[in-house]
Amino acid sequence: MNFELTKEQSMIQKLMREFSEEEVKPGADQRDQTGEFPHDIIRKMAKLSLMGLNFPESYGGGGADTISFAIAVEELSRVCASTGITYSAHISLGCAPIYLFGTEEQRKRYLIPLCTGDSLGAFGLTEPNAGSDAAGTQTTAVENEDNWSIQGSKCFITNASHAKFLSLTASTHSKTNNQRQITAFIVPTGIAGVSIQSNYNKLGLKSSNTTEIYLEQVKIPKDNVLGEIGNGFKQFLVTLDGGRIGIGAMAVGIAQGAYELALQYAKERVQFGKSISKLQVIQHKLADMAMEIELARTYVYKAAWLKDQDKKFTKEASICKLFASEVARRVCNQAIQIHGGWGYIHDYKVERYFRDAKLTEIGEGTSEIQRNIIAREIGC
Amino acid sequence: MNFLVCLKQTFDTEEKIVLKNGEISEEAVEFIINPYDEYAVEEAIRLKELHGGEITILTIGPDRAEQALRSALAMGADKAVLVETEDLEDELDEHSISQLLYAAIQEQEDNYDLILCGYMAVDDGSAQVGPRLAQYLQIPHVSTITKITIAGNEVSLEKDIEGDVEHIQTHLPLLVTTQQGLNDPRYPTIPGIMKAKRKPLTRFEIDDLSISEQSISAKTAQKEVFLPPQKQAGQILKGSIKEQVTSLVEKLHKDAKVI
Ligand SMILES: Cc1cc2nc3c(=O)[nH]c(=O)nc-3n(C[C@H](O)[C@H](O)[C@H](O)COP(=O)(O)OP(=O)(O)OC[C@H]3O[C@@H](n4cnc5c(N)ncnc54)[C@H](O)[C@@H]3O)c2cc1C
């Protein structure tokens, strides 16, 4: 057993801390108000080979591991959760399925531009009538003689406005028994029939890109099937396992950022003639925050470590995501409480963390769904 | 072209200094590359990109200094040398360190065309090591440079002199010390970080160097380490101007003892 980061992991942590403080933090409050997408930051991250962080160098990636990915997402989210989710979705929903299920040809064609930052990665699973029940997809794909024709729509898809292509799921029919099944496809976003809008007025994560996608008789070549025909359901379950480590790390980062602000404020704020950090009530709040964050981070690392060891990590990914997201909600709530009235005001930042944190209890499987998964995994 | 950067691992400038038994405590402290030395590393990398060559990073310090060397390798340096001083009981001062650097350079097969040092270390702040080393090596040195251009053997330098710029023309081999404003050090890239582990790092003990214990023994002694006095609350003097002036003079004389 060894809880120490490797040399590479700690160098990546140091890099991400500095990069986030110097490049990401300065515009975060403004982006929260304007909703402007962090293009510049993504470009700078691409230059450092961060956009392919944990994929092999032969595809333009950085050759680092999942723990490093979790560290990177945490550090970004500590200062700007919108940048955190953009990056997490790019890596774990955009790059990962192509790396995991793509042919060598597809990896060359699609994974390389993702790793080099030429395109952002996106993954279209959720639909207006298929959310938690993602297998209930109503988007259909019909196989023609020399292409597939896709018809339907997707909602809440992160990054799609800035993606040159994305992978998405559609229902297909088995040729052998005509059974309904799910298949994943790689769909270029610039072709006829694809339209992408980002008009949501969101609670938080304002400068991340969340889109609706409409697919009207979209024709794609036969070799754009991702993985096996009919295997789409299994594939997205595997993809989401990895994605949950990203959301867990994002939640830890948000919680850490809010906690640091609360600790600092508590030390500075004087009421009844002394710093409120000298009040035991406030101290206990901060102690609980620190404790919960430590536990959440340790578990995110454990899930990431299992993935890096090629061990099964479905249950652990759900536990880390569920626990960390609820920690983030509690910590941000208390961070506002410690700030009193100022906590409710934009200038003191914690209200942004509070709004951003909520998504971590919803995206990539709600807390209810995580509990279902854990229950199933423990044999209920 | 062969570049050598002499680098020191120092306290993170964000760390709070804590004294324990009259010494600065290193417990749970983060260490970084001395910020001025980081300019030196960055400049060496830029010059290598222009002129080709190889960059060696040299440090004298404890085992943990390896981390600073790896960071410099991740930025783009080629190899590193660590002279370990962990077992040394005697104190080292600027004289000892520059002697050790000199001895370590003698061990290397390479002849360095350009040696870059930060102009000072943020912890001790002596600004002596670079110039002393140049003296031992019998090569010219220019301190606190903010620009360097190399053409063949000729070197044009700019240095900041109290708001003005001094232009200096000299030649290789040369030692320069680097000042803020020279460049903006890069972030290491992920491939840089991943490759850093595979780059050569040579370790020396002092015994491995052809140098006597005597020649590195410190020429100065540290007598006491203390923190600056805590800032007191300000006082507002009352009364007529005359009374205020009288009271001020009295306080400066009796309390502050500055007049
Ligand atoms: C900002 C943002 C970004 C997103 N990015 C992406 C993306 O990139 N790609 C993508 O595919 N999707 C994305 N999503 C969609 C997200 O994954 C879904 O919103 C989420 O899975 C929940 O689905 P739903 O919204 O349809 O809620 P529903 O499934 O309708 O759930 C409503 C409520 O019912 C509960 N519920 C539903 N079923 C059960 C059950 N069986 N047992 C107990 N409770 C249940 C839920 O937990 C929830 O509380 C994003 C969403 C947001 C808000």
Sum this structure up briefly.
The complex is a heterodimer of chains A (380) and B (259). In chain A, helix 1 (7-24) runs parallel beside helix 4 (66-79) and helix 4 (66-79) crosses helix 7.
Please explain how this structure is put together.
The complex is a heterodimer of chains A (380) and B (259). With 380 residues, chain A is of the alpha+beta class. Chain A has 3 domains: 7-120, Orthogonal Bundle (Butyryl-Coa Dehydrogenase, subunit A, domain 1), CATH 1.10.540.10; 123-229, Butyryl-CoA Dehydrogenase, subunit A, domain 2, CATH 2.40.110; 234-378, Butyryl-CoA Dehydrogenase, subunit A, domain 3 (Up-down Bundle), CATH 1.20.140. In chain A, 51% of the residues lie in helices and 15% in strands. Chain A has helices spanning 7-24, 28-34, 39-47, 66-79, 81-101, 104-115, 232-268, 280-308, 314-339, 350-358, 367-377; strands at residues 123-124, 140-143, 147-158, 165-173, 180-188, 194-197, 210-221, 225-226, 270-271, 274-275. In chain A, the strands form 3 sheets. Chain A has a 4-stranded mixed sheet. In chain A, helix 5 packs antiparallel against helix 7 and helix 9 (314-339) runs antiparallel to helix 10. The radius of gyration of chain A is 21 Å and the shape is globular. The mean pLDDT of chain A is 97. Chain B is α/β, with parallel strands linked by helices. Chain B has 2 domains: 2-208, 3-Layer(aba) Sandwich (Rossmann fold); 229-259, no CATH class. Helices cover 29% and strands 27% of the residues of chain B. Chain B has helices spanning 35-51, 66-75, 94-107, 129-137, 190-196, 213-216, 241-254; strands at residues 2-6, 9-11, 19-20, 23-24, 31-33, 54-61, 79-84, 114-118, 141-151, 154-161, 164-171, 174-178, 201-205. A 9-stranded mixed sheet of chain B has the order 11-10-9-12-8-1-6-7-13, sandwiched between helices. A two-stranded antiparallel ribbon of chain B has the order 2-5. In chain B, strands 3-4 form a two-stranded antiparallel sheet. In chain B, a hairpin with a 2-residue loop joins strand 9 (141-151) and strand 10. In chain B, helix 2 crosses helix 5 (190-196) and helix 3 (94-107) packs across helix 4. Chain B is globular, with a radius of gyration of 22 Å. Chain B starts with a strand and ends in a 5-residue tail after the last helix. The model of chain B has no long low-confidence stretch (mean pLDDT 93). Chain A binds chain B through residues 7-8, 10-12, 14-15, 18-19, 47-50, 53, 57, 62-64, and chain B through 67, 70-71, 74, 187-191, 193-194, 196-197. The complex binds flavin-adenine dinucleotide (FAD). Flavin-adenine dinucleotide is lined by residues 89, 93, 123-126, 131-132, 156-158, 205, 210, 359, 362-366, 368-369, 372 of chain A. Chain A: Pfam families: Acyl-CoA_dh_1, Acyl-CoA_dh_M, Acyl-CoA_dh_N. Chain A: Its cofactor is FAD.
